[in-house]
Design a protein that fits this description.
Elements (H helix, E strand, L loop, with lengths): L2 E5 L2 E4 L5 E7 L6 E8 L6 E6 L7 E3 L7 E6 L4 E6 L8 E9 L11 E2 L3 E6 L1
Parallel strand pairs: 2-11
Antiparallel strand pairs: 1-3, 3-8, 4-5, 4-9, 5-6, 7-8, 9-10, 9-11
Amino acid sequence: QVQLVASGGGYVQAGESPRLSCAASGRTLSSYAMAWFRQRPGKAREFVAAVSSWGGGSIQYADSVKGRFTISRDNAKNTVYLHMNSLKPEDTAVYYCAARSGLGTRIPGEYLYWGQGTQVTVSS
C-alpha cells in the first residue's frame, strides 16, 4: 500500500513558478511510475506529466504544459515534484499525484494510488 500526500498549492499570480510536492509513505516510490494529473473546474481529470520508475529516464508531458512544467523525482526522499513555470489562469485546477507499477501512462484509470489533491489558483 502506498500513501501519497500532495502539497505546495495555493494562490499564485500568473507568471509565478511554484513547485508541487508529492510525498509517499508505506513503500518506496522508486519502483513506481509517477504522474501528475489535474482537474480544472467543470472538466474531467486530465494528464499533466509522468516519469518512469527508478531513474526516471522516460518522461511525458501534456502539450498544454510542455516547456513550462517539469516533473522530477527524488527517490532518496521518496518524493516526486512538479515544477510549474509561467503559470496561466487556465492552469487553475486541483492537482493530483498518482503512482502505478510498470510504465508511466496518460490514463488516470491505470493508476492505483492517488494523493488527495492540492488546489492551485492562478490569478491574472
